[in-house]
Amino acid sequence: MKTLAFLIVLFLCSSINCLAQEEYMVTNENDTIYGEISRSLNLLNTAKVGYKIKSADGRKSRINPAKIKFIRSLDGVDGDCIIAPIYDEWFVKRILDGRIKVYQLVDGIVFFTSKDDSDIILNDFGGLNNREDSMDQIRPLIEDNSVILQEFNSLKGSQRDIIYIIEKYNKLNARFYISYY
User: Fold this and answer.
1) pTM value?
2) Of residues 30, 68, 26, the one with CA closest to residue 50
3) Which end of the chain has a smaller Cβ tally under 10 Å, C or N?
């Protein structure tokens, strides 16, 4: 009987926790706007991905990347993730979090990075890029850790290698880093 009561309480707590999570966006003025986030299509330029937010009162509005800091998406096409604007025009999805954040262009294969919550910059690696060029772009991000840098220099420089080394760098530096979003 105690086990059944415990399972019921556990189920109720997890249900309440799931209901408490909402999608939202944070504007450049630090206003948080809650609502349902969805992708919007640009029929004149299908390569440009946009987002809309549907507020509690049912109004839908297009999200201007120049006016927001980030979007917190829970479900939908992009899943559970953080989406940030880049160059006030496009959106990137955060694929790695930590001291070094890695972003990927939404519906693209272009990569961007940010270290210690600095501006997000183009730092493309993998794919059709030259491996040496890719390594040269990433090296300044990890050069403050000599152990990681030594291992990095022994790798081939593929996209998988670079993601691996950034994940390892973030794990080793996790105890010293607090993310602001």
Assistant:
1) 0.78
2) 68
3) N
Q: Judge whether 14 lies within some domain.
A: no
Judge contact between 169 and 151, C-beta under 8 A.
no
User: 99-143: per-residue pLDDT in tens?
Assistant: 999 999 888 888 999 999 899 999 888 767 788 888 999 999 999
Predicted confidence at residue 179, as pLDDT, reads 53
Exposure string of 160-177, with b = 16+ CB inside 10 Å and e = fewer, is: ebbbebbebbbeebeeee
* CATH number of domain containing 90: 2.30.30.100
Query: Cβ(70)–Cβ(82) under 8 Å?
Result: yes
Predicted pLDDT of residue 47: 62
Q: Domain total for the chain? A: 1
| Structure tokens, 75 | 């479900």
Quickly tell me which residue has 């509690």 as its tokens: 56
Phi, psi angle pair for 60, to nearest 5°: -110, 140
